[in-house]
Amino acid sequence: MFRHTPVLAEEVIQFLNPRPGGFFIDVTVGAGGHSRVILELTAPDGKLLAIDQDESALTQAGQELAVFGPRVVFVHANFREVAQVAAAHGFSGCDGVLADIGISSMMVDDPSRGFSFMREGPLDMRMDRTQPLTAAEVVNTFSEKDIADILFHYGEERRSRAIARSIVRGRPLRSTADLVRAIERVAGRPRYGRIHPATRTFQALRIFVNDELKNLEIFLDSSMAIVGSRGRIVVITFHSLEDRIVKQKFRAPAVAGSVLTKKVVAANQKELQRNPRSRSAKLRAWERS
To answer: Which of 9, 17, 63, 251 lies 20 to 30 A from 257 at CA?
Structure first.
């Protein structure tokens, strides 16, 4: 079974502050790494609402957290729906909400999901495979201008127009390898010690296909409203666009509250050596008044 190493686990617990009997929501449960620790610390009667838009992740989390029995409720949903899901399952007024934003290692390592430029697979990139829009539809049917705008806005790709032109000229693109070749015609092949030339394009398409930034904004406003007094929200992001949204929302919250992290929290050297995925992780926390 896939073993997940949760990012910033100690820091999550420090700021989320789970206590026995507490009610918490993990809106991106993934493989259940963070949730396991929360459930252990809220024993014997604390409860956790485990949400994920990826059904395969929920299956994995169900196996990982089976030992906790009815203390865990699993729901297939996007984290933007946290308010409705919390109300339906008795978690309104909960003690805390955790969100580990971004793509999971399970998704990256599965070629059939199409998230990685290092593994050949279909151009899918859907976190929720029940949604209709795929990356293949974007690169094969959107206009050159629209593709360029997506790459620039969501990937901060300075060569967005040239890459978009190469994508359109290379149609049809059926696989991740096809897309990488279209990018390399503009940006060249990977060079040692430099960011892979496909990184920003793949990031941009993934964010657009899954509407990640808009969903994050909706989630933040909703989660602030569903935690009880002194309830906390902890969010881990992995790139600047997401972190900027979290920072702004926490500083100007939808309801009264205060920022717990005066500076963004990053992984220490020990964690970086143990878990390279934590390199880009940034944690921010907020508490309702």
So the answer is: 9
Is residue 2 very low, low, confident or very high in pLDDT (cuts 50, 70, 90)? Answer: very low
Render pLDDT for 46-79 as a digit per residue (tens, 0 to 9): 999 999 999 999 999 999 999 999 999 999 999 9
Query: Within 10 A of 264 (CB to CB), how many other CB atoms are there?
Result: 13
Three-class DSSP category at 196: coil
Sorted by sequence, the CB contacts under 8 Å of residue 262 that are 6+ apart come out as none
Tell me what pLDDT residue 277 has.
80
CA dihedral 226, 244, 285, 224 (to 10 degrees): -10
Q: Map out the domains of the chain with their CATH numbers.
A: 9-105+212-288 (3.40.50.150), 115-210 (1.10.150.170)
- Nearest Cα to Cα of residue 211 among 61, 53, 100: 53
Q: For residues 283 and 243, is the Cβ–Cβ distance under 8 A?
A: no
Token digits for 105?
């290692």
Beta-carbon contacts of residue 92 (< 8 Å; ≥ 6 apart): 83, 86, 226
**Backbone dihedral region for residue 133 (phi beyond 0: left; psi -120 to 50: alpha; all else: beta):** beta
Omega cis (within 30) before 172: yes
User: Is there a contact between 125 and 210 (Cβ–Cβ < 8 Å)?
Assistant: yes
Question: Where does the pLDDT of residue 275 fall: very low under 50, low under 70, confident under 90, or very high at 90 and above?
Answer: confident
Helix (H, G, I), strand (E, B) or coil at 233: strand
- Helix locations, the chain, DSSP H: 9-16, 33-41, 55-64, 82-88, 105-109, 135-141, 144-155, 160-169, 176-187, 199-210, 212-226, 240-251, 269-274
